[in-house]
Design a protein that fits this description.
The protein is mostly helical and 264 residues long. The chain has a domain of 184 residues: Up-down Bundle (Rhomboid-like fold), CATH 1.20.1540.10. Helix content is 58%, strand content 2%. It has a two-stranded parallel sheet. It is elongated, with a radius of gyration of 32 Å.
Length: 264
Protein backbone atom coordinates (compact mmCIF):
# COMPACT_ATOMS: atom_id res chain seq x y z
CA UNK A 1 0.00 0.00 0.00
CA UNK A 2 1.43 3.41 -1.01
CA UNK A 3 0.81 6.18 1.50
CA UNK A 4 0.01 9.68 0.31
CA UNK A 5 2.82 12.25 0.11
CA UNK A 6 3.07 15.04 2.67
CA UNK A 7 0.90 18.01 1.75
CA UNK A 8 2.39 21.51 1.64
CA UNK A 9 0.46 24.54 2.83
CA UNK A 10 -0.73 27.21 0.41
CA UNK A 11 -0.31 30.93 0.97
CA UNK A 12 2.05 33.86 0.34
CA UNK A 13 4.98 31.92 1.80
CA UNK A 14 4.29 29.02 -0.56
CA UNK A 15 4.13 31.39 -3.55
CA UNK A 16 7.48 32.91 -2.62
CA UNK A 17 8.94 29.45 -2.15
CA UNK A 18 7.56 28.39 -5.53
CA UNK A 19 9.27 31.30 -7.27
CA UNK A 20 12.56 30.36 -5.66
CA UNK A 21 12.10 26.78 -6.82
CA UNK A 22 11.57 27.95 -10.40
CA UNK A 23 14.70 30.10 -10.21
CA UNK A 24 16.95 27.40 -8.79
CA UNK A 25 15.53 24.75 -11.13
CA UNK A 26 16.42 26.87 -14.15
CA UNK A 27 19.85 27.69 -12.70
CA UNK A 28 20.57 24.03 -11.99
CA UNK A 29 19.48 22.89 -15.45
CA UNK A 30 21.45 25.65 -17.16
CA UNK A 31 24.52 24.77 -15.10
CA UNK A 32 24.32 21.15 -16.20
CA UNK A 33 23.88 22.07 -19.85
CA UNK A 34 26.67 24.64 -19.60
CA UNK A 35 28.95 21.92 -18.25
CA UNK A 36 28.54 19.66 -21.27
CA UNK A 37 28.94 22.63 -23.63
CA UNK A 38 32.13 23.81 -21.93
CA UNK A 39 33.56 20.31 -22.08
CA UNK A 40 32.86 20.06 -25.81
CA UNK A 41 34.14 23.58 -26.57
CA UNK A 42 37.29 23.00 -24.54
CA UNK A 43 38.05 19.77 -26.35
CA UNK A 44 37.33 21.36 -29.73
CA UNK A 45 39.46 24.45 -29.14
CA UNK A 46 42.40 22.52 -27.70
CA UNK A 47 42.14 19.62 -30.11
CA UNK A 48 41.74 17.04 -27.38
CA UNK A 49 40.55 13.53 -28.15
CA UNK A 50 38.03 12.83 -25.40
CA UNK A 51 37.26 9.26 -26.41
CA UNK A 52 39.37 8.08 -23.49
CA UNK A 53 36.79 9.66 -21.19
CA UNK A 54 33.99 7.50 -22.57
CA UNK A 55 32.83 4.20 -21.09
CA UNK A 56 34.74 1.15 -22.35
CA UNK A 57 32.73 -1.87 -21.21
CA UNK A 58 34.62 -4.32 -18.99
CA UNK A 59 37.87 -2.39 -19.41
CA UNK A 60 39.48 -1.05 -16.24
CA UNK A 61 40.61 2.07 -18.10
CA UNK A 62 36.99 2.71 -19.08
CA UNK A 63 35.72 2.95 -15.50
CA UNK A 64 36.43 6.68 -15.47
CA UNK A 65 33.77 7.02 -18.15
CA UNK A 66 31.05 6.27 -15.58
CA UNK A 67 31.65 9.83 -14.33
CA UNK A 68 32.90 11.58 -17.48
CA UNK A 69 31.07 9.98 -20.43
CA UNK A 70 27.99 12.26 -20.16
CA UNK A 71 30.25 15.26 -20.83
CA UNK A 72 31.70 13.71 -23.99
CA UNK A 73 29.90 13.97 -27.35
CA UNK A 74 30.90 12.51 -30.67
CA UNK A 75 29.99 15.60 -32.72
CA UNK A 76 28.36 19.00 -32.61
CA UNK A 77 25.12 17.49 -33.93
CA UNK A 78 25.22 14.92 -31.13
CA UNK A 79 25.64 17.72 -28.58
CA UNK A 80 22.81 19.79 -30.07
CA UNK A 81 20.40 16.85 -30.08
CA UNK A 82 20.95 16.33 -26.35
CA UNK A 83 20.96 19.96 -25.19
CA UNK A 84 17.25 20.81 -25.26
CA UNK A 85 15.90 17.52 -23.84
CA UNK A 86 18.46 17.50 -21.06
CA UNK A 87 17.88 21.13 -20.12
CA UNK A 88 14.09 20.88 -20.13
CA UNK A 89 13.89 17.55 -18.29
CA UNK A 90 16.41 18.65 -15.67
CA UNK A 91 14.52 21.92 -15.06
CA UNK A 92 11.19 20.12 -14.67
CA UNK A 93 12.68 17.56 -12.32
CA UNK A 94 14.40 20.16 -10.14
CA UNK A 95 11.26 22.30 -10.01
CA UNK A 96 8.70 19.58 -9.28
CA UNK A 97 10.79 17.37 -6.99
CA UNK A 98 13.86 19.31 -5.78
CA UNK A 99 14.65 17.04 -2.84
CA UNK A 100 14.17 13.78 -4.69
CA UNK A 101 15.99 14.98 -7.81
CA UNK A 102 19.09 15.89 -5.83
CA UNK A 103 19.31 12.20 -5.00
CA UNK A 104 17.88 10.77 -8.21
CA UNK A 105 20.16 12.60 -10.65
CA UNK A 106 23.48 11.25 -9.29
CA UNK A 107 21.82 7.85 -8.89
CA UNK A 108 20.79 7.79 -12.57
CA UNK A 109 24.24 9.07 -13.56
CA UNK A 110 26.14 6.33 -11.70
CA UNK A 111 23.77 3.39 -12.20
CA UNK A 112 23.40 3.94 -15.95
CA UNK A 113 27.18 4.15 -16.31
CA UNK A 114 27.74 0.98 -14.30
CA UNK A 115 25.13 -0.85 -16.36
CA UNK A 116 26.84 0.19 -19.59
CA UNK A 117 30.28 -0.82 -18.29
CA UNK A 118 29.05 -4.24 -17.22
CA UNK A 119 26.76 -5.28 -20.08
CA UNK A 120 27.11 -3.00 -23.13
CA UNK A 121 28.73 -3.89 -26.44
CA UNK A 122 32.52 -3.51 -26.69
CA UNK A 123 32.77 0.07 -27.94
CA UNK A 124 33.13 3.61 -26.60
CA UNK A 125 29.87 4.91 -25.13
CA UNK A 126 29.54 8.70 -24.73
CA UNK A 127 26.85 11.36 -24.39
CA UNK A 128 24.33 12.58 -21.87
CA UNK A 129 21.33 11.02 -23.61
CA UNK A 130 21.36 8.16 -21.10
CA UNK A 131 20.82 10.68 -18.30
CA UNK A 132 18.07 12.36 -20.33
CA UNK A 133 16.31 9.01 -20.78
CA UNK A 134 16.62 8.46 -17.05
CA UNK A 135 15.02 11.82 -16.24
CA UNK A 136 12.19 11.24 -18.70
CA UNK A 137 11.28 7.88 -17.12
CA UNK A 138 11.83 9.33 -13.66
CA UNK A 139 9.35 12.17 -14.25
CA UNK A 140 6.82 9.87 -15.88
CA UNK A 141 6.78 7.36 -13.03
CA UNK A 142 6.85 10.09 -10.39
CA UNK A 143 3.58 11.41 -11.79
CA UNK A 144 2.01 7.94 -11.79
CA UNK A 145 3.10 7.17 -8.24
CA UNK A 146 2.36 10.53 -6.59
CA UNK A 147 -0.87 11.26 -8.52
CA UNK A 148 -0.94 14.95 -7.63
CA UNK A 149 -1.92 17.51 -10.25
CA UNK A 150 1.57 18.85 -10.87
CA UNK A 151 3.10 15.40 -11.15
CA UNK A 152 0.46 14.14 -13.57
CA UNK A 153 0.73 17.29 -15.70
CA UNK A 154 4.51 16.94 -15.95
CA UNK A 155 4.27 13.21 -16.66
CA UNK A 156 1.86 13.81 -19.55
CA UNK A 157 3.99 16.69 -20.86
CA UNK A 158 7.26 14.77 -20.95
CA UNK A 159 5.57 11.73 -22.45
CA UNK A 160 4.01 13.90 -25.16
CA UNK A 161 7.35 15.58 -25.94
CA UNK A 162 9.73 12.67 -25.49
CA UNK A 163 7.60 9.55 -25.54
CA UNK A 164 9.74 8.33 -28.43
CA UNK A 165 12.44 7.55 -25.87
CA UNK A 166 10.47 4.41 -25.09
CA UNK A 167 11.57 3.07 -28.48
CA UNK A 168 15.20 4.21 -28.28
CA UNK A 169 15.89 1.92 -25.33
CA UNK A 170 15.77 -0.92 -27.87
CA UNK A 171 18.54 -1.76 -30.37
CA UNK A 172 17.92 0.05 -33.66
CA UNK A 173 20.90 2.04 -34.97
CA UNK A 174 24.30 0.35 -34.41
CA UNK A 175 25.86 3.82 -33.99
CA UNK A 176 23.54 4.64 -31.06
CA UNK A 177 24.21 3.35 -27.56
CA UNK A 178 20.81 1.90 -26.79
CA UNK A 179 22.43 0.34 -23.70
CA UNK A 180 23.04 3.78 -22.23
CA UNK A 181 19.42 4.68 -22.95
CA UNK A 182 18.12 1.44 -21.45
CA UNK A 183 20.10 1.59 -18.21
CA UNK A 184 19.35 5.29 -17.84
CA UNK A 185 15.62 4.61 -18.20
CA UNK A 186 15.84 1.71 -15.75
CA UNK A 187 17.69 3.84 -13.20
CA UNK A 188 15.13 6.64 -13.60
CA UNK A 189 12.21 4.29 -12.96
CA UNK A 190 13.93 2.85 -9.88
CA UNK A 191 14.66 6.35 -8.56
CA UNK A 192 10.98 7.27 -8.90
CA UNK A 193 9.88 4.23 -6.89
CA UNK A 194 12.48 4.91 -4.19
CA UNK A 195 12.03 8.67 -3.73
CA UNK A 196 8.48 9.47 -4.90
CA UNK A 197 7.47 10.50 -1.34
CA UNK A 198 10.57 12.58 -0.68
CA UNK A 199 8.94 15.92 -1.59
CA UNK A 200 5.73 17.39 -0.12
CA UNK A 201 2.66 17.46 -2.31
CA UNK A 202 2.23 20.92 -3.87
CA UNK A 203 -0.61 23.10 -2.53
CA UNK A 204 -3.66 23.15 -4.74
CA UNK A 205 -6.42 25.68 -5.17
CA UNK A 206 -9.70 24.80 -3.47
CA UNK A 207 -12.81 25.73 -5.43
CA UNK A 208 -15.97 27.18 -3.87
CA UNK A 209 -18.01 24.04 -4.46
CA UNK A 210 -15.41 21.98 -2.58
CA UNK A 211 -15.59 24.35 0.39
CA UNK A 212 -19.41 24.23 0.38
CA UNK A 213 -19.39 20.43 0.36
CA UNK A 214 -16.99 20.36 3.29
CA UNK A 215 -19.11 22.81 5.27
CA UNK A 216 -22.26 20.78 4.60
CA UNK A 217 -20.53 17.61 5.76
CA UNK A 218 -19.31 19.33 8.95
CA UNK A 219 -22.80 20.71 9.63
CA UNK A 220 -24.33 17.27 9.11
CA UNK A 221 -21.89 15.75 11.59
CA UNK A 222 -22.60 18.50 14.11
CA UNK A 223 -26.38 18.06 13.80
CA UNK A 224 -26.14 14.29 14.15
CA UNK A 225 -24.58 14.66 17.61
CA UNK A 226 -27.87 16.05 18.98
CA UNK A 227 -30.20 13.54 17.27
CA UNK A 228 -31.93 10.99 19.49
CA UNK A 229 -31.18 7.37 18.67
CA UNK A 230 -33.67 5.45 16.57
CA UNK A 231 -36.12 3.24 18.51
CA UNK A 232 -34.67 0.23 16.70
CA UNK A 233 -31.27 1.02 18.22
CA UNK A 234 -32.58 1.31 21.79
CA UNK A 235 -33.08 -2.04 23.59
CA UNK A 236 -35.81 -2.19 26.23
CA UNK A 237 -34.48 -2.63 29.80
CA UNK A 238 -37.14 -3.81 32.28
CA UNK A 239 -34.74 -4.72 35.08
CA UNK A 240 -34.80 -1.29 36.65
CA UNK A 241 -32.36 1.59 36.45
CA UNK A 242 -30.03 0.02 39.04
CA UNK A 243 -28.64 -2.51 36.48
CA UNK A 244 -26.66 -0.75 33.77
CA UNK A 245 -25.74 -2.15 30.42
CA UNK A 246 -22.78 -1.14 28.22
CA UNK A 247 -23.36 1.18 25.32
CA UNK A 248 -24.74 4.64 24.88
CA UNK A 249 -28.09 3.82 23.24
CA UNK A 250 -29.81 2.39 26.36
CA UNK A 251 -33.01 3.76 27.94
CA UNK A 252 -33.94 2.26 31.31
CA UNK A 253 -37.68 1.69 31.93
CA UNK A 254 -38.98 1.40 35.51
CA UNK A 255 -39.93 -2.08 36.68
CA UNK A 256 -43.64 -2.86 36.31
CA UNK A 257 -45.41 -2.52 39.68
CA UNK A 258 -47.34 -5.52 40.87
CA UNK A 259 -50.89 -5.20 42.21
CA UNK A 260 -50.89 -3.98 45.80
CA UNK A 261 -47.20 -3.09 45.78
CA UNK A 262 -46.39 0.17 47.47
CA UNK A 263 -44.17 2.74 45.84
CA UNK A 264 -40.88 3.74 47.47
Amino acid sequence: MVSAPITAEAGPTAIHRDRRRVFWAVVGAMGLVAGIWLAWLGAWLLGWDMDDLGIRPRDAHGLIGILTAPFVHASFAHLMSNTLPMGLLAALALYAYPRATRLALPFIWIVSGIGVWLWARPSIHVGISGIAHGLMFYLFFMGLLRRDRLGIAIALTVFFLYGGMVMTVLPRDPQVSFEYHFFGALAGAIAAFVWHQHDPEPPRKRYSWEIEEQREAEQTRADSEFDLPSPRDVPALWEGPQRQMGGDNVVAFPRRREDGETLH
